[in-house]
Amino acid sequence: MPMFKGVVESRWAPRSSKSVAGRNASRGGFDSHSLPPLINLSPPLMSQSEIPEEIQSSTEILVTIVKQFLVIDHLVLGKTQDDHLIEFEGLLNRPSQEAYDFAASALHPHGLTPYFRISGNKHKVILKKSLPQPPVQKNGVNLILFLITFASIIFSGIYASYTGPETLDFSLIWPHVRVNLGQSFAFAVSLLSILTAHEFGHYFAARIHNTKVTLPFFIPFPISPFGTMGAFIRLLEPPKNKRVLLDIGLAGPIAGLVITIPILIYGLTLSTIDILPSVIPVNFMFEGNSILYLSLKYLVHGSLLPEPLSFQGIHPVIYWIRYFFTGLPLPNGGTDVLIHPVAWAGWAGILITSLNLIPAGQLDGGHLIYSLFGDKLKWVRPVILGSLVILGFMWSGWWLWAFLILLLGRNRAEPLDEITELDPVRKILARMGFIIFFLVFSPVPLIVV
What we know:
Layout: H1 17-25, H2 53-66, E1 70-77, E2 86-92, H3 96-107, E3 112-119, E4 122-129, H4 140-161, H5 170-208, E5 217-220, E6 228-232, H6 242-270, E7 272-275, E8 285-287, H7 291-301, H8 316-326, E9 335-338, H9 341-356, H10 364-373, H11 380-391, H12 397-408, H13 424-440, E10 446-448
Antiparallel strand pairs: 1-2, 2-4, 3-4, 5-6, 7-9, 8-10
Helix pairs in contact: 4-5, 5-6, 5-9, 6-7, 6-9, 6-10, 6-13, 9-13, 10-13, 11-12
């Protein structure tokens, strides 16, 4: 029974390499060692003898480079409206990761970036203009948003626990505010620690792989139960391959969970067990249960909570399965934990992790499922949408998430190299990510009477 309620979303949204490259290609010209004749070509319908000599020369340079790592079947010059300059198709003659490193190094002096793709049983190497260097990031905005969000979370905690008179007279308000100021501060520190760990997990993973990335942007939202809508970082360039994408995508939830679990355990030790009313009043709220949250409550307090007064003749296993997925029946007259604000922040951390690990679109879970399976599991998105619509009858917030995934879930991160697959260790880590999602997911995050 938390003091306040809500949903926090922490979204990591890398830019689409395709759309960015397309915009930059339309500007024309290279900074150095350019191949301008390749930019404005129509489809290569002319014979070799009809192609201007300077274009042949530029193409031959690129063919010479590409032949060192690709057995070329054929090549196609880009049209004027295309976002690429030239496309090769064939089979790599060396391991894909080694081939990509060589290609990127050899093509960099020409102002080109290679994109590795799979087409059936063939490999494609698509050459595009290199993205311009991103401007130097000014971190003042990030710091200001962090401080505003910190104040916003404190305000949210004070407002949720305020029981004093409704007046603008500060002398009358302050005594009631001061009583809960310490707990509100503890809540803010706990929640921001979780959000910061999550986002810096992404950040440091990106930096380790030399992927340009911004510092976290925190989103203040004082008129909400958590005082924030989370935080996000922004990749300034596409990840190199699926391995890098997995590392960046999984680092956030793991880092956040490493901080969340001790905060939640400590918060639960500060929380008290109380008897619920025999008639649950209107607007009374229960926080939702995940397997992890139920387990930690059992670890700290020795029972599965909320504990009903009676199982009403239903087998306890059946009762808990039904309550877990529907929030019904309400445990009238039973016992539950009245969670401390620190525990509420820990519970929010579990919710944040679960929402980010939904396997769809540009969410962390979307990066995991694409890294592991590529485009093989196109049926997952409709299943996720259908499941959220059904769960929405238990908690209406899922309908909003279903709408967002329907609207934005088709987009995904596009690594530069989509040929290199995960190594065995990363395949295990990706599957661990789905196990974490299973443990932290709450079918009914909030139950409001």
